[in-house]
Amino acid sequence: MTQESWRFKDRHGVFQLKHGDESNYLYFPLVNEAGMMSAVTPTLHGSITSGHNTFLMEPISVESLHNSNAARNFWLFVEGEGAWSVSGNSAQQQGLKFSGQEEESEIEAGFLWHKLTRKHKKLGLKAETTNIVPPSEDQVELMKVKITNTSTEAITFTPTSAIPLYARSADDLRDHRHVTSLLHRIYTLSYGITVKPTLSFDERGHRVNHKTYTVLGAEGQGKSPIGFFPIVDDFIGEGGSFSWPKAVVANMEPTAHTGEVIEGYEAVGGIRFATVELAPGQSISYITMMMIADGDIEGHELRNKYLSEQQFDTWLTLTEQYWNDKLDVLSFQSGDSDYNLWLKWVTIQPILRRLYGNSFLPYHDYGRGGRGWRDLWQDCLALMVMEPAEVRNLLINNFAGVRIDGSNATIIGSQPGQFIADRNNIPRVWMDHGAWPLLTTLLYIHQSGDVDILLQPQTYFSDAFHRRCQVKDKEWNVNQGNHLVDQHGHIYKGTIIEHMILQNITPFFHVGKHGNIKLEGADWNDGLDLGADHGESVAFTAFYASNLKEIVKLLLDVHDRSNIQKIALAEEMTILLDTLSHPIDYNSIDAKQALLERYYDSLMPSISGKQLELDIVQVANDLHQKSMWLTEHLRTNEWIGNQEGYSWYNGYYNNDAKRVEGDHPNGVRMTLTGQVFPIMGGVATDEQVKEIITAVNRYLKDEEIGYRLNSNFGEIQQNLGRAFGFAFGHKENGAMFSHMTVMYANALYKRGFVQEGYDVLNSIYKLSANFPVSRMYPGVPEYINAKGRGMYTYLTGSASWLLLTELTEAYGVKGLYGDLQLEPKLLAQQFDQEGLAVVETLFADRKLRIEYENVDRLDYGKYQINKYEIMLNGNKVSSLPQEQVNSEFKCVLPRALFTELDTGQSHTLKVKLGRV
Ligand code: G1P
């Protein structure tokens, strides 16, 4: 049977999907700021947790979604008929699968609520189950089950809700699953069941536990249950299971009542309600509350707060309001309304990643909740536009993770600016890590005009590792703390610009045999982890080259705009600014490596703490020379061609110091990453960009899968990375990996290849939204696999990049040192019938609605902004003079225009596009 697609029900992004349970890997996120993290599937499966050590329902991976029966459930024992599950999780309902007799079911979901409707046709019963995690201060999930008699006869049934209570750390799933059940103390309250294990056994040791895991239930008007089944054994019965529990199937009497304590068993929130008779057309609702708390719960207060239909409905409204308010700060209205709504679901993704980290959704069954360094910076990109309030502090705090050797801490604490030393293993250095902070900080500076951030002082991270983790100081101990101290024992602080220069200048010297920056532990592609000795990432060499260029521009702009003549840099850094005193030959690999060693030596046994005031133009000049050298080097040595006559940039050298890309007996080898950064940063010339596009279309573009991350190398690559151990077409081995594909689009837009950039973004949308194949809800997946399925949904850095590319490139709305720059790169088809394309965004703390009016629906290249007819709230405003902007296609509006406006409301900027 071909699966029907989801479709949008309204203009707010609510979507509906029939027979959601006929797609195995679907899940939907429910989450709040208090730290409740749930996932819910079309059969109401999925974990409920507040962290790695506090799972209310079992931690699960995607395969358990269909293979385990430990799901949220709500049962009816219907007189004359037997057991029926509102989630479709009874053995009988499962038995209808593939028979053509499947029950009718439908998912409806919005921001952020999930509703499952199932119908028992023969009986004429309809069950609507809605789940939310309310925006309250509690770690709580609520579920309302509404049963309606749609038949013409009265129906009598006995309801039982059954939420398995795992109540412990994810570590205990395999390790001591049984022993940890002996720690359980299960209490029956008047409305439900709470589990408070005596101890927690996890990585932190065996400690007294204070967490409680609770399931409460009430009939919609607040009426209490009539009894409980708190122990899994008793509930399912010998030989039974969660899909055929004896307590329900045999309609047993409850095994427990209020006020009992049961010790040492697997628990379940089995809650029995009184038998009811529903007249035709009549409905009844039941509310279930699932909560993780820091101590004993106040049943009475919680009942008043959550446990009635009225309360549930209020929380549902608040939930929708909360998320809609959040998402309202960024929205796009192009000619394709489905695309606009799909983008709304992408818009929520960066917030989800902030809340879930990289763990706690079914595909993300790894990690303990934290985020990596790279994600820290990349997720900021979209958050900067959507949740800008805390960004400045966040950025400054993040810089505290940089080491004085240009590398950085990779274990990130739960508080902003908290970085933790790796005490055990030799940690890896990801060579791309140093490149991202500049990009994010530049975006911030341009959005806000806050150049001052560059001069803010910040500490450096210090631990046992030196020389980009090549040397471990055995003497170092954790009591020394993680701040770099100078020779006098004072904590050393350098400016933010010092941190950024260091991050981008040390890699320049850290080169392999071919003069490119060493791959070290890996680059952006975590799977390229086997080239630490001789591997080189040409791709990221291009990124660092353009970063150096950007820093030069930044320094000179700062100099021109603010007349700052000098910057203070750590005295030792002058070694790295070699052209200021003792220039070395950049063509000599040895000279570069020796210079870096000299710099490392100068930091031993500690940094002096002295800073030198250096002429900003001279520093810029040094960096300029480095950037130019890299650019020339890449253009001369890494631009390759093959027998079929295609040309592109080689992206890597492997651990045998052999070039990776080009013709090969197993087939042509090419990576997308190798192309993206030379394009994005201007290393590739315009002519080369054209050739790259042709080569990408030849070797990486697949009609079914989209733009692949790499071509098929045909064998594992023990000298490059584990990624090639993955089957081809999956994850970091040749899937359509959204993050890199979006960056490819971004790069193409930046270079003015607008149609091509659009085609790339559009292909991601089309692949993701093609439900019968992608089998995912609206949003962008981490990747599209060999079968076309959307994988690792919701938590992916590609969402940030996608939004940013739409906003700053396609709609062309971005800051320029705090002023507002407009440079739309929209194609004719992106305007609606009236010739309008609208983006709503925050700028200067004001909500702006920017309306581009292109009445003749001219294509990109044929229109330009009519600078004399820009209207802000109906009044004509003037842009900065052309000579200051340096492009006839751009228009820049001074920030002062916006800072005068009221912060409480939305303001409209009408921008007419006329023929060129
Ligand atoms: C994930 C990681 C990201 C990494 C990428 C490639 O991508 O989060 O840091 O660079 O894999 O290995 P994401 O899931 O964010 O799209």
Automatic annotation (TrEMBL):
Coiled coil (residue ranges): none
Keywords for this protein: Glycosyltransferase, Transferase
Species annotation: Paenibacillus turicensis
Keyword Hydrolase found: no
Domain of life according to the entry: Bacteria
Keyword Signal: no
Record-given protein name: Cellobiose phosphorylase
Domain spans labelled Glycosyl hydrolase 94 catalytic: 493-560, 625-804
Entry-linked SUPFAM superfamilies: Galactose mutarotase-like, Six-hairpin glycosidases
Annotated ranges, domain Glycosyl hydrolase 94 supersandwich: 102-307
